[in-house]
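Tokens for chain A. Residues wanted.
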């Protein structure tokens, strides 16, 4: 009984000494060398701190909700950040690559404006 795979598709190992014959294409190709794979050196992106600034008008509960919604903070973490902002005047919400930081600042500012609060959010290079 023969194998189900036709002979044309079977792989036959070649002896190590087998190479191109005189009448085959490739005869005379004598260039040999080592192929090396170069890895591109990627530079880590610059990181930016996203900061909330204190004001005397934005309710603390609103700040907590923004921290939970925009920065995915737990209620406890959001409370700690909000209290830090309230006591020190400024607090860090997170550190992100430029585009992410910019998006988070925009989301905070848009949410604050939509809810008529003067909350300020900025980003600075780390």
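Reply:
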């Amino acid at each position: 009984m023969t194998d189900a795979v036709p002979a044309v598709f079977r792989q036959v190992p070649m002896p190590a000494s087998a190479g191109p014959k005189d009448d085959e294409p490739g005869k005379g190709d004598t260039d040999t060398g080592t192929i090396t794979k170069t890895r591109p050196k990627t530079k880590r992106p610059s990181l930016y701190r996203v900061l909330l600034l204190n004001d005397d008008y934005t309710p603390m509960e609103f700040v907590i909700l923004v921290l939970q919604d925009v920065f995915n903070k737990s209620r406890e973490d959001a409370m700690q950040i909000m209290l830090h902002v309230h006591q020190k005047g400024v607090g860090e919400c997170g550190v992100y690559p430029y585009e992410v930081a910019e998006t988070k600042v925009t989301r905070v500012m848009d949410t604050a404006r939509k809810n008529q609060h003067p909350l300020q959010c900025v980003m600075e290079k780390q």
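The chain has a mean pLDDT of 86. Strands lie at 47-53, 90-97, 120-125.
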